[in-house]
Amino acid sequence: MSKVLITGGAGFIGSNLADRLIKDNDQIVIVDDFSMGLRENIPDSQLITTYQANITDKVFMKDLLLSEHFDYIYMFAGIASVADSVERPYETHQTNQEANVYLLEVLRKYHLPVKKVLFASSAAVYGNDPHLPKLETSTIDPLTPYAIDKFATERYLMDYGRLYNIPTVATRFFNIYGPKQNPSSPYSGVLSIISDCIKQGKTFNLYGDGQQVRDFVYIDDVIDALLLLTKESDINHEVFNVAAGVGTTLNDVIRAYEHAAGKNLAVNYLPERVGDIKYSYADITKLRQLGFKPKYNIESGIAKYWQYINQK
Ligand code: UD2
Fold first, then answer.
1. What is the pLDDT of residues 135-180, one digit of tens each?
2. Which residue in 38, 104, 208, 220 has its CB near the most CB atoms, within 10 A?
3. CA 36 from chain center: how many Å?
4. CA–CA gap between residue 88 and residue 214 (Å, rounded)
């Protein structure tokens, strides 16, 4: 039984992690401002305490860290929309970088003992470099405030880790999909939007020709990776790609979804999104070397996701 903090715990990844951790009888504290996360995502359990707060609230965060003494900290809170970071670079920076550095600073200043701190970074740090697949050692070219903040926070995690002896690790997430992903924004994960369209019989707006490639990874595999990097290994001060390690075109994803749902998706083709990356997929050798083995491919992952969506 551990004491765990999940910032952004009402969001897609954080709430799925909470689902898994309550099975270990962990005591979980969730901090979320509910800007994208949903209350209904949080499992109903006495093991969970939820605070509606923004991670930029320094007084709140400091008091929480000093009073609770967490074993594991998962830093998932953030403004997830790349477009939003382009519109509001300074404000999103406060959340996506500054607040995270402050959390590390409290750990350092007060010598708080932690077993592991994990930060959720993104494949966005690789930018548009054409070399594929993306390796952790590939060129870094963050092209937006979002990507810059993700990369800078990664570096802070690594440096606070090494300089002040705090066990830290960062994950570069590729395209995660599965239950509890909120489809409400145009910048929500494309599979949550496709699910919503298929379920409601709505037309899907496809930006580009559908030949763009992404590395889609099912949420259960991501949770396995997170546990591997925190509770199940002493790996420290390293960055890992978290993906399935397979590139799939958006057209193939749609075909797989139609097959799983037994329904056709109405598609409206629109021009490519400005700044959209054409090809992105990961080399996951580094994570595999720790024992990671994705259980789902795109067909089985979508089939499981559809089962959930259809029953909801
Ligand atoms: C993902 C991350 C983003 C950032 C980026 C870094 C998600 C949700 N977003 O963006 O935060 O880390 O990677 O590279 O994981 N599309 C449509 N119609 C729609 C929505 C999307 O055609 O209604 C297309 C979109 O133009 C893109 C593809 O689907 O080509 C995937 O879009 P996405 O927003 O799910 O993910 P991505 O890779 O752009």
1. 999 999 999 999 999 999 999 999 999 999 999 999 999 999 999 9
2. 104
3. 13
4. 26
Cα(302)–Cα(133) distance, integer angstroms: 23
Tell me the pairing of strands 3-7 and 72-75. Answer: parallel
Asked whether the bond before 142 is cis by omega within 30 degrees of 0, the reply is no
Mean pLDDT calculated for residue range 54-69: 97
Give CB contacts under 8 A, 24+ apart, made by 191-194.
191/216, 191/253, 191/257, 191/302, 191/305, 194/253, 194/254, 194/257, 194/265
pLDDT at position 185: 82
Q: What is the pLDDT of residues 277-302, one digit of tens each?
A: 899 999 999 999 999 999 999 999 99
- Distance, in Å, from the CA atom of 41 to the CA atom of 181, rounded to the nearest integer, reads 9
Provide the token pair at 147. Answer: 């990507």
The tokens of 232 are what? 């199940």
244-279 confidence digits (pLDDT tens): 999 999 999 999 999 999 999 999 999 998 778 899
CA of 84 to the centre of ligand 1 (A): 13
Give the pLDDT of residue 245.
98
Q: Decide: 273 in ligand 1 pocket, CB within 6 A.
A: yes
- DSSP letter assigned to residue 249: E
Q: Which residues pair with 268 in a beta bridge?
A: 205
What does the chain come to in residues? Answer: 312
Query: CB 26: neighbour CB atoms within 10 A?
Result: 19
Distance 212 CA to ligand 1 centre (A): 10
Site to substitute for ligand 1 among 148, 154, 175, 253, most atoms within 8 A of C-beta: 175
Give the type of residue at 46.
Q
pLDDT for the residue numbered 16 = 98
